[in-house]
Each structure stands twice: as C-alpha cells, then as structure tokens.
TrEMBL record:
CDD domains according to UniProt: ALDH_F7_AASADH (cd07130)
Family: Belongs to the aldehyde dehydrogenase family.
Aldehyde dehydrogenase domain: residues covered: 27-494
Alphabetically ordered keywords of this record: NAD, Oxidoreductase
Pfam families the UniProt entry points to: Aldedh (PF00171)
InterPro entries registered for this protein in UniProt: Ald_DH/histidinol_DH, Ald_DH_C, Ald_DH_N, Aldehyde_DH_dom, ALDH7A1-like
UniProt organism field: Thermoplasma acidophilum (strain ATCC 25905 / DSM 1728 / JCM 9062 / NBRC 15155 / AMRC-C165)
Domain of life: Archaea
Single GO MF annotation: aldehyde dehydrogenase (NAD+) activity
Oligomer status and interactors: Homotetramer.
Protein name: Piperideine-6-carboxilic acid dehydrogenase related protein
Length: 512
C-alpha cells in the first residue's frame, strides 16, 4: 500500500504534523484543544490542528473589522488583481493541494485537483467581476435631480463550509466577496480542516508578498461552537453556510434574530427524469456520474431517477450492469471511481437508510453493504446501491449523504414532474429527452422547482458562471456566478439635486 502522505507533501505546502487552526494575519500559537485529522481512506491519523478559543475568535473578528476598513478603500479593479495572483499561486500548488483534498476527503485525484481548478476558475471570474460592479441609473420624477444605485461592501462576512467540497465552495463565496470589498472569516468543517489550513498557507504568500490588508481569516473550531459564535455575532452582517437542513435552519434563525443576512446552501434530493425519448446511453452516463461522483457525497448528487415505464426495465438493466463495473476502493488507485465515505457516522447513515427503504417497501436491486478492503481496514467503504422505490416512501423524501439511488417509474411527463417536485428539497434537477415539448414542460412554470435545471446532463457538476443554490428546504441562497456578487454587498439608492429649488416627490407641497 502506498504511503498516505508523501514525505515532502506537507513541507511543500507549509503544513506540519501539528498546525495552528487560527489565522488572523498571523498563525496563532496553539492554546486550545486539538483536532485529530484522520483520513477516510484508511482511518489513520494524518495531522493535528489546534482549535480556536473564544478569545481567539474575538481577537480575530476585531482584526477583521480593522482590515475591512483598509480593504474597502482599495479600488475594486486592484482588489481583483490580488485575487488573480492568488489564482496563479493556486495553479502552482494545484497537484499538492489536490492531494491534501484526496487524503482528507477521500476524493479521487481527478476530483481533488478539480476542486482546486474550480478555485482557480473562480479567481478568474472574480478578476473580471472587479470591473463590473454595476449599479443602475434611474429616471427621477423631479427636475434637476439624478438618481442611481450603487453597491457598497458589507463588512466582515463569514463562510461556513462542509467537508465534501473543502476548498472550492469557500472560494465561490470568498473570492467574490473579496472583490466586492469585504473581508472573509472562514469556519471550515472539522471533518476537512486540514485542507482549509493548506489553502490559507498558500494564500498567505500572496497577501504578504503584496503587503496587502489581510482579507482572509481562518478559524477551526469543534462542532457547532464556532458556528454559534459567528451566527450570534452582530459584528458579522452576512453568514454563508453550506451543510445540512437542520443546522441551516438553526443558523438562519440565529442570524435572523439579529436582522443579519444569510446565504444557505442546504440539502439536495436531486431527481433525474429519463424519458422514453431520451438518448439512453447519454442518460445512463449522466445518472451514473451524478449518483456516484464523490461517493454520493455531493449536495447535487442524483438520488432519484424517474424512468418512463416503456424503457424502465431496459434502463434498470443497463444501470445494474454499469454499477457492476464500478471499482470501489483507495481513491488514489488507478481505475477507482468511488472512494470512501467521510467517516463511520456516514456509513451508519447509509446502512440505516437502506434498512428503512426495505421496511417501507423498497426492493434492493444492487449493493447495500459496506466493504472491507485489505490494507485499508480503517477506511469507510460501501457498495453503491440501487433500490426500486415508490415516490411516497418517507426515506425517499430524505437526503442520505451516500451512494444510494432510488429508481421509480412514471407514465406521463406531468406525472414525472409531479414525482420530481414531491420532495422538500429543491437544489438540482435533470431531464434526459430529445423531445422539445418534454424539455419545455420541465423548464416551464409548472416544471422543475429547483434552483438548477439541467437538460441532457447530470444533476451534478455545476459550472461556476451560473448562480448556484436552490429553493424550498435547500435554503434559497445563491453563490458563485451571475449576479450572486450582490449578496455580499448592500444596495444604496442615491438621489442628487443639482438645481436651486427643492421639489418633492409625489408633488408633495411643504412650504414654511
């Protein structure tokens, strides 16, 4: 078995066996408890990270406020140049950072490096955006008046990320917020904190080299402790959270109580409709990728496939055959497409969901068991699973973060859309068809109720150029591209009177 950590990997990035988990312009000397980082590949200990204390947090936020005052005064195009240089530094370290992602999150090298590439792409997007923070010019009803709107930085914003995309999702928020003029406090998942430390080590080089204000801050904390500090802190006007629905609801409540803003990217229970008019092989590739990428641990993972009854048996047979060829194991090994789940709790959730599905009337078609791999006995491996299900089964309404695919059939496109929309979540959706009318029905007002709607492509694998996010229990926020940059700023309507009188709106008269 190859060594989990290459001899010089940590030194290339600037990591140690024991790392500080607090960065506020300098790496804070460990003073609190330690987090042990274990790899899901074999369960072995990789490193230790010190956890932030409350004193660390308060000092970090105070410094973030001071750095924000400097950063917001730098013209946006110059802010963009700093983010571009960060992207260039990430290009240099793409392979090394990708290896850290693989070790800590269990992703294949292609997915690990792809995550860093996504950060690079976002830095390019942010650079262009830095010259396009546009407001509107508005016609005034009053003579000698001009109206327009402008967008103003919010302040220190917080980004709380999940383990499944331990680097890229942070950059969707952080790089865009930074060119907007904000500074960013990052609280990563304790299940993927080493990647966050590694990314910050690389970014620190650029900030120091340019003698720039410190725009990115890092705080590793245990459990929900750090999240509670952030969400209840009125000094932080915006909190962006990626994670589960229950935690997202708590965060939303905490932030709303103090009239703050939140961006919530919560659960996805994503469905793919496969029509009898689909290109079957294309649909098969799209469903298999969507269901199995990142071992089913994506918020955009395909969890339900809704197949037209005329081709149901044919498609199910092809699906079983495809699953039988998928290699599960050490994600670093050639030919392995499905690596481990993140931890033992994820395995238990997988087993529990399968038990419930069978009790509720589901039929196990493929998989359904955990796997023990020689030499990796401490890892968390399970078989990709297919279950024939009915749309009204309670477990089908839930998101299980594992490679479980529920298969069900439909008669008409209207029925397919109704089944598709019958779950509480509303993140990503897909239809495979060559029929224009079916495609348009899926995209119509009564069609997909998700934030992302795809035609002849997978529910997973969203591009950065579009705004990312969903509806219903998914939370309703948007990140990354399009005009999602507006979430990290405040809108200000400006009225200027350049005349010598004071006419009032709505013809109001006020004479004295």
């Amino acid at each position: 078995m190859k060594a989990l950590v290459e001899d010089d990997l940590f030194s290339k990035i600037g990591l140690d066996d024991v790392n500080s988990g607090v960065y506020d312009g300098e790496w804070v000397k460990p003073s609190g408890k330690m987090l042990t980082v274990k790899s899901p590949i074999d369960g072995s200990e990789v490193a230790k990270i010190s956890l932030a204390t409350r004193a660390d947090y308060d000092r970090l936020v105070s410094r973030a406020i001071e750095e924000f005052k400097k950063w917001r005064m730098i013209p946006a195009p110059k802010r963009g140049l700093i983010i571009r240089e960060i992207g260039d530094e990430l290009r240099k370290e793409k392979k090394n950072l990708g290896k850290i992602v693989t070790i800590e999150a269990g992703k294949t090298p292609s997915e690990g490096e792809g995550e860093i590439q996504e950060m690079i792409d976002i830095s390019d997007l942010a650079l262009g955006l830095s010259r396009q923070l546009y407001g509107l010019t508005i016609a005034s009803e009053r003579p000698y008046h001009r109206m327009y709107e402008q967008w103003v930085p919010l302040g220190p914003v917080a980004v709380i990320t999940s383990f499944n995309f331990p680097a890229s999702v942070w950059s969707w928020n952080a790089f865009i917020a930074a060119v907007d003029g904000d500074v960013v406090i990052w609280k990563p998942s304790s299940k993927a904190a080493l990647t966050a430390v590694a990314v910050m080590k690389v970014i620190e080089r650029v900030l120091k080299r340019n003698n720039a204000p410190n725009i990115f801050f890092l705080m590793v904390s245990s459990g929900s402790e750090g999240g509670d500090w952030i969400t209840n802190d009125p000094r932080i006007p915006l909190v962006s959270f990626t994670g589960s629905v229950p935690v997202g609801k708590k965060i939303s409540e905490n932030v709303a109580k103090r009239l703050g803003k939140s961006i919530l990217e919560l659960g996805g229970n994503n469905g793919a409709i496969v029509s009898d008019k689909a290109d079957i092989d294309l649909a098969l590739r799209g469903v298999v990728f969507g269901a199995l990428a990142t071992a089913g641990q994506r918020c955009t993972t395909t969890r339900r496939v809704i197949v037209q009854e005329k081709i149901y048996d044919q498609f199910l047979e092809k699906l079983k055959n495809a699953y039988s060829t998928i290699k599960v194991g050490d994600p670093r090994e050639k030919g392995v497409l499905v690596g481990p789940l993140i931890d033992e709790d994820a395995v238990k959730d997988y087993e529990h969901a399968i038990d419930l599905a069978i009790k509720q009337g589901g039929k196990l078609i493929f998989g359904g068991k955990r796997i023990t791999i020689k030499g990796l006995e401490g890892g968390h491996y399970v078989m990709p699973t297919i279950i024939e299900a009915k749309p009204d089964m309670p477990i089908v309404k839930e998101e299980t973060f594992a490679s479980i695919l529920y298969v069900m059939k439909y008669r008409t496109i209207e029925e397919a859309i109704e089944i598709h929309n019958s779950v509480p979540q509303g993140l990503s959706s897909s239809i495979f068809t060559t029929d224009l009318r079916e495609e348009e029905a899926f995209l119509s007002p009564y069609g997909s109720d998700c934030g992302l709607a795809n035609v002849n492509t997978s529910t997973a694998g969203a591009e950065i150029g579009g705004a990312f996010g969903g509806e219903k229990d998914t939370g309703g926020g948007r990140e990354s591209g399009s005009d999602a940059w507006k979430y990290y700023m405040r809108r200000q309507t400006v009225t200027k009177n350049w005349g010598q009188t004071l006419p009032l709106a709505q013809d109001v008269v006020f004479e004295f």
